[in-house]
Amino acid sequence: MTEHDSPLGALREVPFMGVIFVVHEASKRGFYNGHPDWCNLGQGQPEVGEMAGAPPRISSVEIRPEDHAYGPLGGTDAMRGTVAAHYNRIFRKGKRSQVTAANVCVAQGGRLALTRVMAALGSVNVGYQLPDYTAYEDMFNLHLSRLHPIPVRTREEDGFLLTPARYEQEVEEKGLGAFVVSNPCNPTGNVISGKALAEIIEISRRHRVTLILDEFYSHFIYTKDGKPGAGPVSGAEFIEDFERDPILLIDGLTKSFRYPGWRMGWVIGPSAMMESLARTASSIDGGPSRISQRAAMAALEPRRADQETRALREVFAKKRNLLVERLTKMGITFAAKPTSTFYGWACLKNLPAPLNDAMTFFWRALEHKVMTVPGEFFDVNPGKRRRAESPYRQWMRFSFGPPMENLAMGLDRLEAMVQGARSGKPSASRPKTKKQRATRASR
User: Three-state DSSP class for 58?
Assistant: First the structure.
């Protein structure tokens, strides 16, 4: 088949992101969302049903006559004001600079908010940490003619945590004009907080680096010994002046409020930056749904919001502890146990071959109807300019997003798979089709 006969026509081949690739392969084997006999430990969303201690799920929203028309590109005044009040209540009590509606730009989901930010950046060197969220790669790819992405590989001995000293060194040596980082971090489950986060924001302020903090897991916070954290983590706590500090905070309802299907996110930062982001929406998406914004305002009502986020820390801390305990028992190790998100970033090097290779582990686990995400998918590599083999071939992201019962079933199956490999019992072979080998080679 020639390129002229390709069913894609003039379209480019768009690669799957890590989680989408995992779901695609599982679907070939019978998986669908809600399948009772599948365990999605690659899941990128939290459980979305009723949860112990949480308020009842919001199940209806009023549709008003004005909702049938386009809304403002940056969100309705009411929604922007609600988000501003939410941040002031949690992070800005007694502080001079307060978040206003002008400091908020609403988008139909977090990835869309990030897409607007990438489109609004000028011709600059943009730093990003490794490993990090898979979607950043294709977002960068769309703007390689203008942006120069520069990776900063975090170190295992630091628990894959970006330190202030390392951040400042990279800013100075690489001449960075912007830096994007998920914090709390997907996939590592670590979080920059307290003094370290304050220092990174101060470094950004001093060097005038636009720091893009992707804070979608801001309320999933745990202590080092696995207890629920006291509250959320956000750069909002350490900003001196919301009109002058070059900091963008991105969050939404997808993770911490467990409404991923609503596609509701926002960006907070200087009002001039918010105006630029709204302008990018005129050509990218046309602005967020008025209906979703009205539902989001109900989710952010203070008493409901606090009850929801307290409950999720209680419930997810228990699931975090189960995941850490069971994986450790299998011989899977952590550079640092997760203190945020609902992911465990763990190393397979102590497992018997061939399960000590993450892609092999992934294929074998699929045969047991368990989904996981190999670590190399988080080796963000815009333009595939780095040719060396990924250093994360023995790392895996395990999700404790599913309900407890399903999580436990998945861990039981993985434990049986590992025990079988140790005892020498035959196990399902890794599929070796040309397409699967090519997929791995391309990543």
Answer: coil
Q: What letter would DSSP give residue 428? A: P
Spatial CA neighbour of 99 closest among 324, 286, 268 = 268
One-letter amino acid for residue 180 of the chain: V
Question: Do residue 199 and residue 314 come from a single domain?
Answer: no
The amino acid occupying position 202 is E
pLDDT for 168-221, tens place per residue?
Answer: 999 999 999 999 999 999 999 999 999 999 999 999 999 999 999 999 999 999
Q: Give the H/E segment covering residue 202.
A: helix 194-207
Q: Which of 251, 272, 301 is the last residue of a domain?
A: 301
Measured distance CA(285)–CA(261) in Å, rounded: 17
Contact 292, 304 (CB under 8 A): no
Rounded CA-CA distance 32/49 in Å is 17
**Dist CA 240 CA 431 (whole Å):** 54
In a domain, 56, yes or no: no
C-alpha separations of 331 from 59, 187, 325 in Å = 43, 20, 10
Are 296 and 383 in a shared domain? no
Widest distance between CA atoms in the chain = 67
Residue 5 covered by a domain = no
Looking at the structure, tell me whether residues 253 and 380 fall in a common domain: no
Residue 437, C-beta contacts closer than 8 angstroms, at least 6 positions apart: none
Backbone CA torsion sign across 361, 343, 345, 410: negative
For residue 252, report the phi and psi dihedrals to the nearest 5 degrees: 175, -165
**In the chain, helix, strand, coil percent, each to 5?**
40, 15, 45
Based on the fold, state whether residues 230 and 348 are members of the same structural domain. Answer: no
Instruction: Mark whether 295 and 320 lie in a shared domain.
Output: no
Pairing relationship of beta strands 148-153 and 104-107 according to DSSP bridges: unpaired
Tell me the per-residue pLDDT of 80-117, one tens digit each, with 9 for 90 and over. Answer: 999 999 999 999 999 999 999 999 999 999 999 999 99
Of the candidates 18, 41, 23, the one whose C-alpha atom is nearest the C-alpha of residue 344 is: 41
Count CA atoms closer than 13 A to 232's CA, side-chain side.
28
Statement to judge: residues 87 and 101 lie in one domain: yes
* Residue 158, domain member (yes or no): yes
Residues 6+ apart with CB under 8 A from 246: 204, 205, 208, 209, 210, 211, 269, 270
Bond preceding residue 131 cis, omega within 30 of 0:
yes
Are 178 and 210 found together in one domain?
Answer: yes
Read off the pTM: 0.92
Domain with 337, as residue range(s), is 13-51+306-442
On whether both 161 and 246 belong to a single domain, the answer is yes
Q: Which residues on adjacent β-strands are paired with residue 151?
A: 128
